[in-house]
Sequence to fold (339 residues):
Amino acid sequence: MRDGKGPSRAPVLQFTNCRILRGRRLLREDLWVREGRILDPEKLFFEERLVADQQRDCGGCILAPGFIDVQINGGFGVDFSQATEDVGSGVALVAQRILSHGVTSFCPTLVTSPPEVYHKVLPQIPVKSGGPHGAGVLGVHLEGPFISREKRGAHPEAYLRSFEANAFHDVLATYGSLDNVRIVTLAPELGRSHEVIRALTARGICVSLGHSVADLQVAEEAVQSGATFITHLFNAMLPFHHRDPGIVGLLTSDRLPPGRHIFYGMISDGMHTNPAALRIAHRAHPQGTKTLSGSIAPMDVCVRHFLQATDFVMLDDSLHVQATYISGELVWQAEEARQ
Fold:
């Protein structure tokens, strides 16, 4: 029998004395995890013939997935868009403080800024694993400057940009290196945007549609080019209209590529988005709910508000639901609990 302690195998962690939510019931169960994945204990014991390398006593507490905040512009006195000499220390402070709100990984987000800010800040925010020291950094979210002037919101108009003749070259000239970038929010109605969307997605960067006056056809074409996310649904975009629902119409569009899922963010702080709008979005497209910035409400507060507004069921007997949040917005992903 292998004891699982060889140098080539990742260690297995067993959480004991914990409660796990399944089918709206809190059950006392142990949980086995390896490299961030939940394991089937029967397969572990009888097929792999392994035992846990480490045990962690939870003291009867509820064991739940951590939140992933994919859009947070700062906090606790830190603004990620400020080009200081030590951006890393501010990121580390926020990473540590958001743990108490249930956030275990996040995307530091920069609002529209001049090129010199991106060139100085982006190299200082590398991808980093999380732990007791703080939440992990998944990569930077760049919200702008390639957005609509009409729907710019709080973004400074002087730094907004459009795509010129060599569109992706303009992106690189603006941002500098994209090595640490994970998400880019842009307005798909800008000329040559589809060229940029294809280039970004080819590099593994998620393209989000937002701060936009795009109609539904333009939004659908952007998704066909590779866009997969909507930044703060309902906010900073054209309002829903029955003749042309705009970006909101992507929730029920029948012109998306087969198998393509559109995730979306909503500002679920109880102020920016009416509870009825939260319910409309969730019932129209429950697989792709996300939360985004625009609020100072902490993630756990926004998640509670979303749950109260939609009566959303978080777990059933076969699915492990992970809440992904953005400083006031929220993403839910259902994953197989047993690998």
